[in-house]
Structures are given as C-alpha cells and as structure tokens.
Amino acid sequence: MAYEVLSNEDKRRVYDMHGEQGIKEGGGGGSGGLHSPMDIFDMFFGGGFGGGGRSRGPRRTKNLMHQLSVSLEEMYNGTTRKLALQKNVICADCDGIGGKEGAVQRCPNCRGTGMQVRVQQLGPGMMQQIQSMCGECQGQGERIDPKLRCKKCNGRKVNRERKILEVAVDKGMEDGQKVTFSGEGDQEPGLEPGDIIIVLDEKEHPTFKRNGVDLIMKMTINITEALCGFKKAITTLDNRTLIIQTIAGEVTKSSDLKCVYGEGMPTYRNPFEKGKLIIQFDVEFPESIDAAIAPQLEKLLPPKEEPMIPEDHEEVNMQDFDPEADRRQRRLNEDDEEHMHAGPGGVSCATQ
Length: 352
Known about the structure:
Elements: H1 2-7, H2 9-24, H3 39-45, E1 64-70, H4 72-77, E2 79-90, E3 104-106, E4 115-123, E5 126-133, E6 142-144, E7 158-169, E8 178-181, E9 196-202, E10 209-211, E11 214-222, H5 223-228, E12 231-235, E13 241-245, E14 257-267, E15 270-284, H6 294-300, H7 323-341
Parallel strand pairs: 1-9, 11-15
Antiparallel strand pairs: 2-7, 3-6, 4-5, 8-9, 10-11, 12-13, 14-15
C-alpha cells in the first residue's frame, strides 16, 4: 500500500490532502490539511495503522548502569550477589502529582511551554531570537503551589529510595557481560521506568589469567625438575587439587607450554563443557654451584663444544649487563656534555 501511494501521483495527492482515511475512502474527506510525507512510513514502520499516527511506543526514563566487581572464582562457580543502589520512586503520598488537588499550576513565566524566548539585537536591522529552558519551572511548563505541595516529596513527585538487587552471576560469565533488570530504573510520572543494567567487572587473579574459556597460569620449576622430571599440585578455582607430572628423562624447557583439557573455564549456559588449563613453564637456574662438583656434573651432562682457538687471541672478561641502567648512564653522559658546551646563562659557546 505504501508503494502504491508513493508511486501513484493521484493517490499521493489524495494522501497529502486527506491522509490514510482518504485513500481507504477513495479520495473522500479525511482529517483535512496537509500531512507530513513521512507519516506513511510511520504508519507502516513506526507503530501501526492508526490513521498516520507517529506512535513509537511509550517514552521511558534513562537506563541506569552499575558496575559489579566479581572474582574469577565467582565466574567459575557461579554465585548470587546483592547490590544496593539508589533510584527514584513515584511518591506514594501524592501519587506523583506533587501535591494536593489543584496544586499543579501552569507556569506563568513561560505560559506552560517550558521555554523562554528573548530577542537580542545584533546590529541595525539584525535581530537574533534565543530560546532557552525556563528557569522558573525547569522546563516542566508547570509549578506546584507551595501551599498545597506534598510534604513527603516536597513537590518533586518522586522520592529517592534504596533498592536491593540480587544479581545472578552464572558459571562462565565474562568480563564486561551485562545483566539487565527490566523496568527497575528510575520512575517518573507519565514515563515508563527504564532498565537497570549491571556490568560485570572481573577482578585480577593472582594465579590464573583468563583467555575466553581457557585458563592460563605460569609455573616455575628448578633445573633439577626440568631435567629429571617433577610432580606438582595445582589448586583449581573450585578448590580441587590437580596433580601434574613429567617422567624421568622428559626435559622441560623455559617457555614450554602444556595443557590439561577440561580444566579451564566453564562455557556460559553450558557449564559442563570446559576449556583448557594452559601451563607456561619457567625454569629457574641456581645463582652458582660449587666448583668442586662441576667436573662431576659435567660428566652427567652432554659434552661441551670445544672451540678452535687461534694462536693469536685475546682473553676478555664478561660483566653483568642491565639495559635500563645502561640507558640511564648514557642520558647522564649526554647531559654532562651539554653542560660542558653551554656558556653562561645556558648559551652555547662558539666552537671552531
């Protein structure tokens, strides 16, 4: 029907003159007067066939956003958290009117429009019209008679009340995931309440780091465990104990990755399916060993590579190197050079 009206010049003229009813009656009398060309789109896409109306659903108050800090254990096991917050509730004493019967008056300052208009002269024959919100009624277009004002809400129509929400944190929920409480937002006369949206904020865990449904942890082992095998205990997020081990002869190197299937995070809404537990190893070497046992240790380890040393050579000493300390020292040296070349007052001396 929309296509037929827009594509037919006669029907479009009838609709402009008489609206949707004019189309249905074959050009008969309708509402009279011109309609917006967008009304026909509103009729089909914006809220029904109510004679070209622009209804798009009731107006609502703004949604309220709150952040809830949760631990990785709570996201793993699931929990229910109580959250206390403040919200506006329509005054029960005056039913959101603001006072007794007859208390609501049209604002005399803006005559009920909620806006004030003032004219400012910019120059000869040039005027500027400035529209601003009425300061008397704060843009409401009405005010409450002080004598009839509600004592509980003081004419504000709403009161601030404390609300306790029980937030269900399901197994496998993620950082930033939202839990919505529909219609629990601020109340305001004439408007539907919006939603309260709780945003989960995952706290950092000392052992595990999350990557989707996988859990990642670092484990430090010493050189003996790396070369000769080890057995280690891991405490899970639900307080179970896992034993991992390597066999004798299995060498673990620094940055090696191992995984245990089914010991990661539970999948949201499918908690019996879990991701992987990924373990990254870090091999810790001793600061030094007894020189007397070095020859014995050398016999047990793979042979050293003997270099070809020419007759003409130099032996040098190696020192510990700290890149950060080296950068600081170079900056100090550069600053000293600048001061040496700078004259009185910071002016550089001419050099030849």
